[in-house]
Every structure is written in C-alpha cells, then in structure tokens.
Amino acid sequence: MRLLVLSRNASLYSTSRIVLAARSRGHDVTVADPLEFHIVVSKGRPDMFLGGQSIPPVDLVLPRIGASITNYGLAVVRQFDMMGIPVLNSAVAIARSRDKLRAMQLLTRKNIDVPRTVCARTPDSVDYALSFIGGAPAIVKLQQGTQGIGTMIAETPQAVTSLLETLWAMGQDIILQEYIAESRGRDYRAIVVGGRVIAAMRRQAKKGEFRSNLHRGGLAVGVALPKRYERAAIGAVKVMGLEVAGVDMLEGRDGPKILEINSSPGLEGIERASGVDVAGAIIAHAERAVTKRKQRRHVTTDSVLEAERRPRRVRLGGGT
Question: 116-179 has which CATH code?
C-alpha cells in the first residue's frame, strides 16, 4: 500500500507512530504538509502539485488536519476525493465534527445525548440561555477549538455576560453549555476505528482545572469502556461519518454525554494509558479500506465482462 499522511510535522508523536506502524507492515509511506500542496482546478481535470511536481501514485490518504489549517487542509482533502483517491476521513466528515454546534445538532437529531447547549448572539438573550442550561457556572466554548483551547468556565451570570460580550466584540461565534457538576473534572476518551472502539482511557483534570485534557495537565488511566459509553461513542462517530476519531464523553447522572468528536485524535496519551497499538489499528483499517476498494473495482469489471459475454436477445418479426 502506498500511503500518504497529511501532517504539518512528521516528527509529531502521532504522525511518527502512524508512519512506523505502516512501514513495519511493509507499506510505502510519505508525509506531506497540507499547506505545501498546490490545488489545480480546471474543467474535468482536478489535480495537485507538491514541490513543483504532480503527486506520486497513492492508494490512500490519511489526513491529520489541525484546527489552525482547517480551511485549506479541507480543500486539499476534498481535492484528493475529487481525484478519485480514497481518504480515511472525508473533508465533509472532518468539517462536520470540527464545528461543535453543527456536530451537536446532528447528534441530538439521532437521539444521542449531549450537554444542554445554547448558541446566543445578543446580550439580551443571555439570561434566558442561562436558565435553559441550568444557570451558572456555565461552560463557554468557541465553535472551533481543540485540546481545551477556547473552552472556558464562567462561575457567575455576570461573568458569563462579560465573557460573551468580549468574545462577540472579537467576532467569535460561541456556544454556551451546561456544567456537568457530577463529572467532577473526569471524562472518557475513546478511539473509534472502523466502527469499533479499540482503546479507551479515563481522564482526570488536575487540581484547580476543570478541563481534563492531557495537554492541560490531566492524568489518564486505561479502562475497559462501559458498554453504554461504547455504544454512544460508536454512534456519535457514525453520525459524523468518520472512519477514525476520538470521542470525549462526560459521565452524566443518566449516562454518557458526548462532549466532543476529534477527527485527528492524538495518539500519545491513549497509547501510553491503554497499552493499545492504536497506530497499528489505524493502519490495519486502512489496509482493509484499500482491499475493499480494489475488490469493488474487480467486481465492477467482471460484471461488465459477463454482460458482454451473455447472448443478446434479438427481436424477430415486424418492426424495428
């Protein structure tokens, strides 16, 4: 398999682990920065250039698109799709999961539970929004963010109003979300690959911090995910249309609440906490995807040949 990994930095833990896992299974791997691609748009001939040359033959593209390059990164992923090159996480699915409000709209439509959430844009709606989510403290989030960046807690109604007005003045779109007190700074992170949970960990925020992200000093331990949480994670990823994803879930009184779905989940924390070779599982799924694609092509070709071999019926008699 000829694999192309889209990543800004080949030395990042997650990227390097994917490369090592692929090469250990005998695959040819190239890492390329999405920003270095030149997209060519012309009638009937979508193409791309990298380093002044057309891209080499590729069997599958594995995108690791960070939030800082979402727009151009998605354009590159979309171009591969238009060129008929399979991508493990489509541009549509990545964009869907990256927009927090859109993701929650889709999840709740499929009856998947999330924290109560309000999108507000004017100061006179803040009081009603707060009453809907259960009052302060409340979580304020930028609609696009990762690793806990852009996620804040406001302890009082006055703090909520002040924070929202500041963010609106900066042109930011935000969502207001209920604070799940019973989670006490804990959550689950599950990695879903090909419709299966392959690894999970439970994270605990450090003292004085409400975000459990490992980048924020949180601690993690590998766990066997409860079935209810496993079903919720798989269902959420299916709604997004992702092949590979990380799912963050809070422990609510009445069960799991989906907090966030990450289309480019970091592998370092989950691999160390769980002891699972997540990178290897991703490559194994990529192999299956390439094999299925080749089989579909083979079946299509065979069916055409069979149709050509069948004797054609000839209508006799009058008329043409």
Answer: 3.30.1490.20
- The tens digit of pLDDT for each residue in 88-144 reads 999 999 999 998 889 999 999 999 999 999 987 777 788 888 999 999 999 998 876
Split at pLDDT 50, 70, 90, the class of 145 is low
CATH of domain 2-89: 3.40.50.20
| Domain edges within the chain | 2-89, 116-179
CA 290-292-293 angle, to 5 degrees, is 65
| Non-local CB neighbours of 70 within 8 Å, separated by 6+ positions | 94, 95, 98, 144
Q: Is 70 exposed, middle or buried (0-12, 13-18, 19+ CB in 10 A)?
A: middle
Above 70 in pLDDT, residue 149?
no
Mean pLDDT value across residues 150-166? 89
Q: How confident is the model at residue 128, as a pLDDT?
A: 87
Residue 122: the pLDDT is: 77
Q: Do 116-179 and 2-89 have the same topology in CATH?
A: no
CA proximity to 37, closest of 89, 65, 76: 76
